[in-house]
Amino acid sequence: MTMQRVHVINRSRGLARPLHADWCDSFGAKLRGLAWRRSLGAEEGVVLVNEGESRANSAIHMLGMFFDLAIVWLDGEKSVVDVRVARAWRSILKPRMPAQYVIECAAERLNEFVVGDHIAFETLP
């Protein structure tokens, strides 16, 4: 199975540097996420994709995570509805509002996203 990669674009304010993410739309890919990785580059991440907006289905876990993450939840229109840091091994988080997409990236990138930002994804070759 080949994993699709996307370029994450913050149309509202831009990003300090590129963010490339694996597009995870299958159950297995979403369950795995970034678990058991020992590191994550500042320009890497994943996008967890659900079929519709939900608080429960867009919850994330930090079991098997060795580092903190920035979590960015987006609604079906790709507007940011919540942003938080998830702590390694300690967090199970649900967004404050229903979400369809979840971006997981390096914790240091948290301040590049705020509620209301509009995000776009472009497929990478």
Q: Could you describe the 3D structure shown?
A:
- The protein is mainly beta and about 120 residues long.
- The chain has one domain (about 5-115): Sandwich (Jelly Rolls), CATH 2.60.120.
- The chain has one helix and nine strands, in the order ββαβββββββ.
- The strands form two sheets. It has a seven-stranded mixed beta sheet with strand order 6-5-8-3-2-1-9.
- β5 and β6 form a beta hairpin.
- The longest helix has 6 residues, at about 25-30.
Blueprint of the fold:
Blueprint: E1 4-10, E2 20-24, H1 27-32, E3 44-54, E4 60-61, E5 69-74, E6 80-86, E7 92-93, E8 99-106, E9 119-123
Parallel strand pairs: 2-3
Antiparallel strand pairs: 1-2, 1-9, 3-8, 4-7, 5-6, 5-8
